Write the structure tokens for this entry.
Amino acid sequence: MPFVYFQTFGCQMNVADSDELKRKLEARGFEETSCIADADLIIVNTCTVRQNAENKALARIKEFSKLKKPQCLLWVTGCMAQRMGDTLKDAIPGVSLVIGAKEIDNLDSIINEHLIHSSFYNQEHHSHSSVSDYITVMRGCNNYCAYCIVPYVRGDEHSIPVSTILDTIRARIDDGVKEITLLGQNVNSYNDNGTDFADLIVKVSALDGLKRLRFTTSHPKDCSDKLIRTIAETPQCCSHFHLPVQAGTDRILSIMNRRYTAKDYLNRIDTIRRYIPHADITTDILVGFPTETDAEFNDTLSLVKQVRYTTAFMFAYSVREGTAASRMTDDIPKQEKLDRLNRLIEAQTEITKEIYDSMIGSTIEVMINGRQDKREKFWMGQDNGCKRILVTGEHFNNGDIIRCSVKRSSGMTLVCDTQ
Ligand code: 5AD
Ligand code: SF4
């Protein structure tokens, strides 16, 4: 049986794309390996959203091209593959195929074309399943935030038909999946002939056997009251909103082309907290966007302190070729960007710690998703929001939802006992 090795960089959309590719390869007789030396096919699924994401992927591809068996194929997929195309083959000898993110809908024919003549093309084989899975409900993006390369590499926004989504999820549940995360660059603008994202949530949660439903990412401009109300009223829906704010000042939000003000954003947060008081709210923030002043950065810092996110993904701005912002001067010195980033990370880390610490003594429901490698009686899981949990216990099954009391907090993980 041929072996495939996967290395995935970037967002959950990439993880979902890798999973889809994995399933298609498994159906053709491949087995996944964690050992490069055994691999007959190495797939590097890349990200291009920031320059350092690309640098990391390029370094790994070069490393793989040296480590791999001579006859092993090396495929590069995803957003950097879309941006660089076949120039990647010239840049790194050993890369045998480049599959851009926009080609994801044609995976079957690409695989058939490139593997059908090889000894790899094999008998039917069913894929394994885990308890938690990602399902892409929409692809691409039409928002064109000034800093962002995604609309260029992933193409126009389009929603996957409701019936396809329901059939896919039904099959996954039948395979043992208990938790589904609906994915899209902006799930809130999902629309299939009038079925919006709130309607989709109602339909998915009606599927028998689904224990938990999650979704990401939400764009604040499209996060409607109807959606928030639907999530509050749907017991399977987890109480976690990932709502990227990006910046805390109207002038910067406007040149970023985000199409909301700080006040609009805070109004969304208030509505979420009104309907779902204990919701975990997380965000993405970008510092050092062209022309951002120190005072404007301080507004972002104040917003972060006001909202009190459970966690945040924080980045220093990097120029992406072809975007609207790439036509502005990247005028914030690197050291200044890093200083702002560090100040932000410090403030957020403190808030995360306070939120985690405040959970000590409370009762939470945890879905078990694996055993901790190093400590035998520790199991890993997630609460109904986005918090990472360690539970002590003799034996659980992945997918079990158990009531626990929180004993300790490490600032980023809660340690619990079963009740
Ligand atoms: N520079 C830095 N961060 C960026 N992001 C997107 N584009 C850039 C860029 N050019 C961040 C945004 C987005 C997250 C996925 O990556 O915060 O929400
Ligand atoms: Fe990029 Fe904006 Fe689209 Fe998100 S909504 S993928 S930040 S363009």
About this structure: The chain has three domains: 3-115, 132-357, 363-418.
